[in-house]
Fold each of these.
Amino acid sequence: MSSSPLLFRTATEADIPPLITLVTSAYRGDASRAGWTTEADILDGQRIDAAGLQADIARERSVILLAEVDGVLRGCCHLADEDGHGYFGMFAVDPQQQGSGLGKQLMAQAERHVQQHWGRTTMQMTVIDCRSELIAFYQRRGYVRTGITKPFPYGDERFGQPRRDDLRFEILQKTLEPQA
């Protein structure tokens, strides 16, 4: 990673095209294989679309947090205040930057955001439950498996085109450390 500082800001509609590029590169197709977060073996098609991003940006108590180095988008996540918890989703780091510590910094900033802006003390996320390496990554960062699952939205191409028929989401949760 560059020696330049990592800067955080919230996304605007002008950020939608680079967000689509970043998230797609982290999760879909051959480009995603440069990192370890690829879903290319279980899903084809799109990971996000402009309409969904626009809705997340416009929605109350919802932000897309960007991580930039020298003005270049290197990571992002979607945060929302949902059902009494912070929600953490759409976490993506440039495949060439994965393993650099950028993702850990972005996660820490996301946790601070939900505490400072919405007063939430827990964070939840959904992860495709067959992604054991990804679940292990989140567990090392304090998230626990809840055992609560949700069906994968088969037939809704906004979530991609499944390459297998056993996909489902599991909710992970973390109790956030009090802010000093």
Amino acid sequence: MTATAPRVLLVEDEPTIARAVVDRLVAEGFAVDVAADGPAAVDMARACEPDLIVLDVMLPGFDGLEVCRRVQAERSVPVLMLTARDDETDLLVGLAVGADDYVTKPFSMRELVARIRALLRRVQRPAPDAASAPHPPVLRIGPLEVDARARRVRRDGREVHLTPTEFDLLACLARNRGAVLTRAVLLEQVWDWADASGTRVVDSHVKALRRKLGPDLIRTVHGVGYSLDSA
């Protein structure tokens, strides 16, 4: 993060939407750069090194999923996807290539700003200090090893690459091993959301974790939430 205004890269090819988002973000105190297609977005992300990217899925050149994949391969940066398609497969693909959150069009500017601020707060969190942390720096649950300080995960000794949000969600479940955490609690602790309006983002990230870690660790308690148990 910069010491002054957080820098946001907005990638949006619809001029009306782009102008409205830029005006609101500038009014909220952000510095904003804009790209209107996939290749320009990748070049600009490399040049301006934004603190966060707001990224439309449907773009000329190549789509937002490919932009996210290329940007994350070079530098880890929080990504908030904008999508007009409220389809679970599209959302899972976005999460798989490194997106942290998504907003479905049409969206309110208030919701967009709240999601951006919440995501920036999360990436500013300091790493846990080994001397003062209430939990050991490395949590071992069955075949799973979660290293909080190094932010690394292994299953059966094999390292598993997780996005920042996936790691935060897994670490939250690991710290509360065996307890059933509701979606509202997970939204508050992982996403810093004060309401439970985004429960699908929790479900989508859990599905992404299961694809990477296997289906046997995270248990669904229907009507309640999720629990991390030993396999």
Amino acid sequence: MARRRGWGGSPPSTDEEASRRIVGAAVELIGRTGSEVNIAEVAEALGVTRQTVYRYFPSSDALMRAAAFTSVDGFLDRLAQQVSDIDDPVDALTEGVVFTLSEVRSTPHLGILLSSTYSNLQPESLTSEEAQAFGMTMIRRFDVDWEQHGFDDRALAELVEYVLRTMQSFFLAPGNPPRGDQELRRYLRRWMGTAIRAQTTYRDSSHTP
């Protein structure tokens, strides 16, 4: 049997192209299997050695993280449509969280991102620069005037972290039985909503002479 040629017979011309093609192969495999993949599987799909993939990604965790963040653009577009014209921060984030948790069922890349199962050895990855960038991109799609509601850049970054942690907890432990969408909305408005509204009070008290 003839040995399979690496890169489909067309090697990348730059490191950037190589990295992009590796991530693309990982995204395709995740979409096909609905689960995480490892360096060996991606290398086999590309017809290269594992050492070749390791040149660009030091671990399967790093590759899964890159694949997850690369493949959520479609989700962000759907999210923006779902929360369009909602200018109240509590209502917008409530709908955003409910929609995201629902989308996880049909978007394996998003599930990997929220579960952080690819980073068991690095649990802080949920608050990494990449995760924060994803959260900021997500929350900036909302039709909410965050500054008007008391959120400067620092407060908004902390809100993003809070929401990411909230979504991760529901994804990993949805409850038995899991809450339906309406019950989840009620829960989020009561507890997450209280935390969001507290920012206005905190801002006003911090500026009191």
